[in-house]
Every structure is written in C-alpha cells, then in structure tokens.
Amino acid sequence: MAGLGLLFIAGLIGMFAATGWEETTAQIARLTLWQGALLLMLSLANYLLRGVRWHLFARRLGLPTTLGADMRHFLGGFAMVVTPGRVGELVRMRWLKRETGWAYERTAPLALMDRASDLAAMAVILALSVAIAAGGMGGALPVAMLALLAAYAATHPRLLAAIVTRAYRITGRFPRLFARIRAAARSLRHFTRASTILPAIALGVAGWLAEGYAFHLLLGWMGAEIGLWKAIGIFVFATLAGGLTGAPGGVGGAEAAMIALLALDGVPMEVSVPATAIIRVTTLWFALGLGLAVFPFAERLSLRQKNALEIR
Fold first, then answer.
1. Nearby residues of 145 by Cβ (< 8 Å), 6 or more positions away
2. pLDDT digits over 230-272, tens only?
3. Is the pTM of this model over 0.85?
4. Distances (CA, A) of 271 to 20, 47, 159, 214, 218
5. Is residue 229 classed as helix, strand or coil in its secondary structure?
6. Alpha-carbon distance 161 to 154, whole Å?
7. What share of the chain is helix, strand, coil (3-state, %, to 5)?
8. Are 284 and 247 in contact (CB under 8 A)?
9. Spatial distance between the Cα atoms of 179 and 26, rounded to a whole number of angstroms
C-alpha cells in the first residue's frame, strides 16, 4: 500500500511539473477547508449508503448480524481497497466466519452481490449521463451496457452455476473447489427478488451520485463549469475504467481516463490535473484511511466473538 501510494504521488508530481507548478498550486489554493470537508462528507455518504446495502444483503442471506456489525465489516474492508482487483476486501468474509461460524462459500455471495450492484448502479448513472449530456461521452454507452451485462451474469444463479459446471468439465480438476463455488452461485437465489435488487441498486446509485456531485462541485470551484451530468458521467466512467484495468484501486487508469475526458471537454491541464488528484484523494485514498481506522476494531471484535463461539 505504501509503495502504491508513493507511485501515485510520483505520478502527481510528474503531472504537476508538466502543467506548471504555479498554476497547479494556485488552483489547489483556491479551495477552502470547508470545501474539502464537504468533499469528504459526500464520499462518506457514499460509503454509508453502500454499507446499508451490505446490511440489506446480509439480512436477505440470513446472517445473524446487526447493522453496526455489517457497517464495521464493510468499512473495515476498505483497508484493502488498493489490492489488485480489490480482492483484499474479501477479508470481510473472514470476519463473518469468525463471528457467525458461516463458511466462506455461504458468505461469498455477499461480495459478489456488492460488486455486481456497484456495476449496475454505475451503468445506470452512465446511461443517464449519456442521455442528458452526451457531448464527449458517447463511448460511455457501450461501457454502461457491458457493466449491466456483467452485473446480470454475476448475479444469475443458474447461469453462474452452469458456467462453473462447464469450467469443471473442461479442467476436470479440483472437484471440491468447484462444488463450493457452485453452491455459492446457487445461493444467489436469495437476492433475485425485486424487493432486494431495486433497493440495492437505488442505494448504489445514490451513493455514487454523491461522489459524482462532489466532482462537479470541485470543478466549479476551480472555474471549470462543464455541467452536472457531464461531470458525474466523467467521474463514474473513469472510476469504472480504472476498476476494469484490475490495477490496485484502479490507480493510473482512473486518473488517465479522467484527465483525458476533461481535456476532450476543453478543461485545461492546470485544472484537470489538480481536480483529478483532489477527487481521488477524497474518494479512493479517503476510503483507504477510513478502512485502516476501522480495521483494527473489526479484527479485534471478530476474534473476541470467535472465542465466545468456541466457548459455547
């Protein structure tokens, strides 16, 4: 994580030097403390809304956890947000196993539904952005459709189970592993009802809109008024593009996409570069800091509850 942070800082220094230190620092100096605090509050709103969605999924799955415990697991998992493909966030499954005794294959659908719901929510936002402010965002529509298809495939129990079965027949190896994955896929049936899917997508849309709105505010404060929906579309598209690269936290890909899209809209580099840096610090790196703050408590409490279960 420290190495990735240093690479991120090194990249920013290079971009700042290329665009001019004076112009860049002047743009950053325009922001006040309350404006920075508002950006962080909007990011926190995103994480809390998605934490409520995690709790919704946990209840539908039948986990005997409280809202506080689910929120602790969800936020603590952000300590691993900069792992490749964010697979480190599966630490939440370990905490659930300790506290409830549920095996990993029983709780794995939670992580799958969480990621699929984000894909679906971001696809909805991208589609709205293209429909309302299509200028320079025409390429976002195929990405939105791809995200929706991926979300559908990842949450369709029969389709996913069939894919797993086909993969096992091709390889002919690891029967126990494939059996567990197939069991996890079939348990997705708990989430296929509209009473679960629709609130989950709504919470995701509201959360990601909060961060997109923060990006819109930031650009306005820096003198680059490109419109609300275009700013939201650029932010969501860049975040999704960075995630699709598989890079830890989408670092590199998300920043490049954001700066490129802003440039296509006529935003000068001396604005797009610091705006990108600030929004990434107040979203991705803020999530990491939040996760690192919650992680020790989640780890300690999970061990305590594990010991309590063993005593029983």
1. 123
2. 999 999 989 988 877 666 767 778 888 898 899 888 888 888 8
3. no
4. 11, 27, 46, 15, 10
5. helix
6. 10
7. 85, 0, 15
8. no
9. 58
